[in-house]
Amino acid sequence: MALWGGRFSSEPDEAMRLLNDSLPFDKRMYKQDVAGSIAYTYALHEAGIVSAEEAETLRTGLQSVLAEMESDKFEFLPTDEDIHTAVERRLTEIVGVLGGKLHTGRSRNDQVATDFRMWVRDANEALQKALVRLMRVLVAQSEYHTHTIMPGYTHVQPAQPIVAGHWLMSYFEMFYRDFIRLVDSADLSLRVLALGSGALAGTPLSYDRKALLGRLDGIPSDNSLDAVADRDFVADMLYICAMIGVHLSRLGEDIVWYSNPNFGYITLDDRYSTGSSIMPQKRNADPMELARGKAGRLIGNLTGFLTTLKGLPSGYNKDLQEDKEALFDSFDTLMMILPVVTAIIETLKLNPDKMRAALTEDMLATDMADYLVAKGMPFREAHHIVGVVVRDASERGIGLTKVPLDELKALSALFDADVLEWLTFEKSVSRRSNFGGTAPDAVLKQIEIAESWLESQAWAFNNP
Ligand code: ARG
Q1: Taking CB atoms and a 6 Å cutoff, what residues make up the pocket around ligand 1?
Q2: 140: closest CA among 429, 451, 363?
Q3: Residue 259 has what pLDDT?
Q4: Distance of alpha carbon 319 from alpha carbon 310, whole angstroms
Q5: pTM (2 decimals)?
Q6: Residue 24's pLDDT is what?
Q7: How many CB atoms lie within 10 A of CB 252?
């Protein structure tokens, strides 16, 4: 019989049970569920519902339930609707009728809100760790390539030369922001716990909620009606996952293009490349295409769940049960992709010669304008004059540095022989040495900042 079977004269229909039950997916919150109940036994004693001895018996029983779950010995029954009912049912088998006291003053509504938040806290930490590991290899690769010059693009058109370390560090920045999002949300929305909110109206039991939730590393929610139905923390987490997915998809796009033989800037290690069943020459970057493709489902999980939340009346509604599969999927998806992308970056081979060969002198046009500016010309005028030089050079099919000096001088008396020294790819990147720019020194500075931050994140490498 269902836990709530008293007021019904027949058992739930089988098909409806399949729809209603969440056990198949929420059993992965068993640790949090048991931890929440163990903490709750202290409150029950404080409120005079169970003696100290009974509370201890409940805790021992809950520990046995946990041990059974942990060793895969726990036998789930078809009547176990969700993880909360499964734990309580088994506890009662172990400790007898006393088990029936555990749920006093509590509802699955405040219980699930608490369990899931605690689960999300762990997931948050796991994601932080995976991001730190990815960031570390991005920094390591960047360090090798502070002097490797490659084309930088805007609109996928050749724009200005940059160093490859600058390109890689741009992804470090994206994942760093994601990391901060995780840290902030752990601070902001994952500490507040609902336990003690009852079904919606609060609890009639008198105990110190602050002490209860302190045992779970949290603080009490302020409003019971809000607390049981607050899934903002799920939406926050789904957003962060989607954002990580978006960043991975952009990295995927770059890597797919740069590994195309027409670019040839990078080569993926054999372990992370795939071949074709028909074309023997193929060497595809499938995992990075998947990293790009998975962003779709991560965004889908976010928009799907926001749609579920939208317009829900106050209080708990069963719609909220949709929170778990969405987030489990986003989390599992990222935990599958992130380590692979990390290994890909770690083993990525950059091909400086190919990058060099792709540099064209038109990418120095801005530098030519900067040259005139350095000699006192207003930038707008310089831009126009260099535009004329670029058009002329491109019509003649020659590089900017091949336009004869007397022709340049005819356009502006400020042109001199030193323009040739000015117009090299090395000088172009080196001139952008202000903080945040692509000059090797500036990139090294970025890397130093990143490295000292990584040192503070040693925890992420401690255990596997
Ligand atoms: N399995 C439910 C969920 O995930 C637990 C809460 C059930 N509460 C209820 N009143 N039916 O949301």
Answers
A1: 22, 26, 82, 108-109, 112, 316, 318, 320-321
A2: 451
A3: 96
A4: 11
A5: 0.95
A6: 96
A7: 24
